[in-house]
Design brief:
The protein is an alpha+beta fold. It has 35 helices and 34 strands. The chain binds one RNA strand through helix 9, strand 9, strand 13, helix 12 and helix 16.
RNA sequence: GGCCCCGUGGCGGAAUGGCAGACGCAGCGGACUUAAAAUCCGCAGCCCGUAACUGGGCGUCCGGGUUCAAGUCCCGGCGGGGCUACCA
């Protein structure tokens, strides 16, 4: 940075009032103090003094930061600057705007930083928050101070705990489609309106049984489930916090699946609504898609496969999205963890050795020739599978493994026996943890069947193959088609007719027969090879097809027929056919679906299953319930205690907040032993964990829950607290909520603009929607969704440099061959050197660890924060990721300097605008700019706003002196982007005198934004391009608003055009008034 | 493997289907200056031609298509990025 050309080098003596970095700094400090003093950003709530309910409201929100110890780099505030500009614009256009900033200060980062520095997290958190406040204030961000919250503040987390209790005391009424208080369920059970899940009626249940019946319905519940246990972090993690290769998102430590007793939130109850309510939200489509994928709704059916040999004739319930392929289910697979495995596995291999060898076990570690009994094989395979999932599942080509259980199930539709396997490609957590395998029509089943030598049966054919099959089996069932069967088949398929629908059949059939993925590609190949008439093309198609038949090994008609009779067409194809088609080989004793399309067949089988009582159509979701407890210190304590029998009791509201106890040693117990048990740090606070309470039945001794909540808890609802930060009676007052969150018509979400990075697409944004919906159902908030409009800002990226060992080096010391600093000349390619050693450049994130971070404080000191704000916006569209280039900042700085110089005398510091009225031309430029800038502001196009203001200023700088009217409008338009210099100019130029003479409240923050006069923006005459045959040939000038007739006449009169069209027949003339003329000759 | 997004000068980027490259950085030329910085004015996609121009051609990753007109819409390919990954 030291080699930056110093912008203030002109020296104060020559231009004492030039807009230098030093002057910018003074102006910025002055106005930041003054804005604080007058509470400039205060937005009164309904009922408060100064509230004006006639103005429309806007809630502009940032994803709040966690206060890290390392400080900000210039990438962090990008979104904050954008929302600040937008909020300032909205204030100036007559809106009540709530805009605040809080701190997400519980959780792993704060705790890890505390552990590193050996300081209590409360201390480090407070210090970091204070630090961050200073950094953010320095950027001139107009946040309302009184609304700032911190999730670690007991007055805040009191309500986090309160919301937890609301969720705990609620259940999901599926019929009503919403959450309801648990006591309503209790009342319904007591009155007999609802029956308990089991056999036993409510009236004869013991208190304990009743409690557990209720517990089973709660939206927050305790359960022992396989969870992601990370011994190095000493905590369990949510699925969302584990990366694809089985490591922790934070710290990248190994994660193991372990069954542990944990708090869980029943987010799955909301799966359907979380999916449906995405539709009306104004969110980026990719984010919606990511949420849809995460929720993962799939329609299908459950099917019962009876297992007759077991005691009590149990059955295996499988889930399939393809019930139409039930006839092709040639085996059943359970996940290794499936509950039924133990009861079905047999002592001996059945039928004394008649089973294929691979069924006995061929997975790594299995003995040569397989195991001696299913029992051994299953036990060994289970051990193998659980160990395997412990290691990171190295992505990609995973060999299918599994073993036969010795047992058979009955395919309900065929009545035939199918073998039951266990295999780890079936997941315990999805669907029913068991599948029916249809190898002919599922890639995974196909692979497994090939490996274990299981039967494969085609039951769905692509349409053309279905037609071939019909030809083979029915049109010429006895083989009389030979020897010219291929021609006959061609005729049968319609190649020689001119029927259009047959052409269409070809389009579909050919690529499939050719086994090509790309239909259009295949067709083009044919078209290119076959010039001439349709008939000739068909001839070419036919010969290609005949060749194809040969290449598939179909030597004779009988061959073809045999292939279809045995339902082994997959052999020729060599892979599963997973696309829809026509059902075949699908006739059973009580149902046939042969000839049906896949859609119709699904429906028919679903109905049949329900009718026969062996299944039903169902919907399954990928979304799992949300693991909500962590074995960490720095989190919200659960307002839960356990009695001597280990039953959970909720604390009453009046005992909130339940304070996090101070601990000497707050460190988690980390271990590299995967079997180390979780030990929450709070368990060591013995004085805290054991407590005497009266929960309604006298004083008793209880033990507190020692887990804490995940750091998502606070971020699930913080935006609501911004609205009513000091409310003692509710998390947010009803009037306050309905005003600020209140939906405009057609909107279901409350926040009008929410800006943040994509990394929260499925974590924070899904959890927050879930909590908000529960609060909505229980009547605590007025909108069904929290965030109506979401905007994903891009990232500021940067170059980083690595030496030969792969270690990052200080990017700002890397040099080019000519000795220049590489970061100052980013458009120059290498080679690069660092202390004489060669280094390589890479492009990506900015960060301390990459040694390429630029701190906003540096930039503010060097240019002022207004310049930094302008630059960050001018870099490009907000949603795009773009490279930081310190050198480019000069352009933004020069822009502000030129604005200043245009309006202020650099010698005297006084205004140099003129009171003269602006010329027609200046007014035109001005009002065009207002129109354009307003349009860009509305769509968050802050980069093009800067361009337009530069253009306006460039125009004004050509004038001898800037007219006041134009200066005034330009200052107002500049105010959202560069509030400090605009405020200063406002006072010096528009209001006159020095700032100190002004009554403090009259700040530009609440001035009205300029309004364009369309008539002034209109041109007198316009230049119109004239093209001939789409090529630009000349330009004409006509009065604005000329009719098409006038424009065309002028275009014909143009010398050059006249020459070009002379003697040619003009087929068509396109005239778009005000835009262009095109002659088609 | 599946799904999604993106490819425009030396660089960041503009462009409701209607003059591609606004605006800025870097660059070049000039003015001012003893000189430099700063500032101001001008040039600037590539190729060819001209004394000059308001001259000609090619240009938004590549190949097709739709259209009077395509950076923009459609199909196919190549390249880059993101998400997801045995979800039955």
């Amino acid at each position: 940075m030291s080699s930056e050309p110093t912008p203030s080098s002109s020296g104060p003596e020559s231009f004492p009032h030039r807009y230098s970095a030093a002057l910018a700094g003074r102006i910025e400090a002055l106005w930041q103090d003054r804005w604080d003093l007058v509470d400039a950003y205060r937005a009164p709530n309904p009922g408060e003094a100064g509230f004006d309910g006639s103005r429309p409201k806007k809630f502009v929100l940032d994803m709040f930061p966690y206060p890290s110890g390392v400080g900000l780099h210039v990438g962090h505030p990008l979104g904050y600057i954008a929302t600040d500009i937008y909020a300032r614009y909205l204030r100036m256009t007559g809106h009540n705007v709530v805009h605040a900033m809080g701190f997400d200060s519980f959780g792993l980062p704060a705790e890890q930083y505390a552990v590193q520095t050996g300081t209590h997290p409360r201390i480090t958190t407070e210090k970091n928050i204070a630090n961050m406040r200073v950094q953010l204030r320095r950027l001139g961000l107009g946040h309302e101070r009184r609304r700032s919250v911190s999730t670690t503040d007991p007055e805040f987390y009191r309500w986090t705990q309160w919301i937890f209790l609301q969720i705990y005391h609620a259940w999901y009424d599926v019929e009503a489609g919403r959450a309801r208080p648990i006591r309503e369920l209790e009342a319904m059970l007591a009155s007999g309106e609802r029956a308990p899940r089991g056999e036993k009626p409510w009236s004869v249940m013991s208190a304990l049984e009743r409690a557990s019946e209720l517990d089973a319905h709660r939206l927050a519940y305790v359960d022992e489930v396989p969870v992601n246990w990370c011994p190095m972090l000493g905590t369990v993690l949510a699925n969302e916090e584990v990366t694809a290769d089985g490591r922790s998102e934070r710290g990248n430590y190994p994660v193991y699946r372990r069954p542990l007793k944990q708090w869980i939130m029943r987010i799955t109850a909301y799966a359907e609504r979380l999916l449906q309510d995405l539709e009306p939200l104004d969110w980026p489509e990719p984010i919606k898609l990511m949420q849809r994928n995460w929720i993962g709704r799939s329609e299908g059916a459950e099917v019962e496969f009876g297992v007759p040999d077991t005691k009590g004739a149990q059955s295996i319930r499988v889930f399939t999205t393809r019930p139409d392929t039930l006839f092709g289910a040639t085996y059943v697979v359970l996940s290794p963890e499936h509950a039924l495995v133990d009861s079905i596995v047999t002592q001996e291999w059945p039928a004394g050795g008649a089973i294929p060898a691979p069924w006995r076990g061929t997975f790594p570690g299995a003995p040569q020739g397989g195991f001696t009994s299913p029992k051994n094989a299953v036990a060994a395979y289970r051990a193998y599978a659980s160990k395997k999932s412990d290691e990171q599942r190295t992505g990609g080509g995973t060999e299918k493994t599994g073993v036969f259980t010795g047992a058979y199930a009955i395919n309900p539709v065929t009545g035939k026996q199918v073998p039951i396997f266990i295999a780890d490609y079936v997941l315990a957590g999805y669907g029913t943890g068991a599948i029916m395998a249809v190898p002919a029509h599922d890639d995974r089943d196909f692979e497994f069947a090939r490996t274990l030598q299981l039967p494969i049966r085609d039951v769905v054919y692509p349409r053309p193959i279905a037609a071939m099959r019909y030809f083979a089996l029915h049109a010429y069932p006895t083989g009389e088609a030979a020897p010219d069967w291929r021609d006959q088949l061609a005729d049968f398929m319609g190649i020689t007719t001119s029927n259009a629908s047959k052409d269409e059949a070809w389009d579909v059939m050919l690529p499939i027969v050719l086994n090509r993925r790309s239909r259009a590609g295949a067709m083009r190949g044919v078209e290119l090879d076959a010039p001439g008439s349709i008939g000739e093309r068909r001839g070419a198609v036919r010969s290609i097809w005949v060749e194809t038949i040969d290449s598939l090994g179909l030597r004779s008609f009988d061959d073809l027929r045999a292939r279809f009779e045995e339902a082994r067409f997959w052999e020729a194809r060599g892979e599963a056919h997973t696309e829809p088609g026509i059902a075949a080989n699908s006739s059973g004793p009580s149902i046939t679906i042969d000839g049906m399309t896949t859609g119709a067949a699904k429906h028919a089988v679903g109905e049949w299953l329900a009718r026969e009582g062996v299944g039903r159509p169902t919907v399954t979701f990928k979304l799992r319930d949300w693991l909500f407890s962590r074995q960490r210190y720095w989190g919200e304590p659960f307002p839960i205690v356990y009695d001597e029998w280990g039953r959970a009791h909720a604390l009453p509201e009046k005992m909130l907040p339940l304070l996090l106890p101070d601990l000497e040693d707050f460190r988690p117990e980390s271990s590299d032993d995967p079997d180390a048990p979780p030990r929450p740090p709070l368990a060591r606070a013995s004085a805290w964990t054991t407590v005497e309470l009266d929960l309604g039945d006298g004083k008793r001794t209880y033990t507190r829950e020692t887990n804490t909540m995940p750091n998502w808890a606070g971020s699930c609802w913080y935006y609501l607290r911004y609205l009513d930060p000091t409310n003692q009676n509710a998390l947010v007052g009803k009037d306050v909520d309905s005003y600020w969150m209140g939906g405009t018509s057609g909107k279901i979400g409350g926040v009008d603009l929410y800006v943040g990075g994509v990394e929260h697409a499925v974590l924070h944004l899904l959890y927050a929607r879930f909590w908000h919906k529960v609060l909505f159902d229980l009547g605590h908030v007025s909108t069904a969704e929290p965030f109506q409009t979401l905007f994903n800002q891009g990232y500021i990226q940067a170059f980083a440099f690595k030496d030969a060992r792969g270690v990052y080096v200080d990017a700002f010391e890397v040099r080019l061959p000519d000795g220049a600093l590489a970061m100052e000349h980013q458009d120059k390619p290498g080679p690069y050197t660092y202390s004489g050693e060669p280094v390589t450049r890479e492009y990506g994130k900015m960060g301390k660890s990459l040694k390429n971070a630029v701190a906003p404080d540096e930039i503010c000191a060097h240019y002022g924060c207004d310049t930094m704000r302008i630059y960050e916006m001018a870099m490009g569209p907000l949603e795009a990721s773009k490279p930081w280039n310190t050198r480019d900042i000069a352009g933004s700085f020069r822009f502000l300097q030129r604005v200043w110089r245009n309006l202020i005398d650099e010698q005297t510091g006084l205004s140099r605008v003129t009171q003269d009225a602006p010329t027609r031309a200046t007014l035109r430029v001005l009002h065009k700019t207002i129109i354009g800038v307003r349009r860009d502001m509305e769509k968050l196009g802050f980069n093009t706003v800067v361009s337009k203001l530069i253009e306006l200023n460039n125009h004004l700088s050509e004038l001898p002196a800037v007219p006041l009217e134009a200066a005034r409008a330009m200052i107002l338009m500049l105010a959202p982007h560069a509030p400090h210099v605009s405020e200063e100019l406002w006072h010096r130029v528009v209001r006159g005198g020095t700032p100190d003479e002004r009554e403090a409240r009259e700040t530009i923050v609440h001035e009205a934004y300029p309004i364009a006069d369309e008539s002034l923006a209109r041109d007198d005459e316009v230049e119109i391009p004239v093209s001939v045959l789409g090529k630009l040939r000349s330009k004409i000038v006509v009065p604005a608003g000329s009719s098409a007739v006038v424009i065309e006449a002028a275009a014909r009169a143009d010398a050059k055009i006249a020459e070009l069209i002379a003697g040619k027949e003009i087929k068509k003339v396109i005239v778009v008034p005000g835009k262009m003329v095109n002659f088609v000759v």
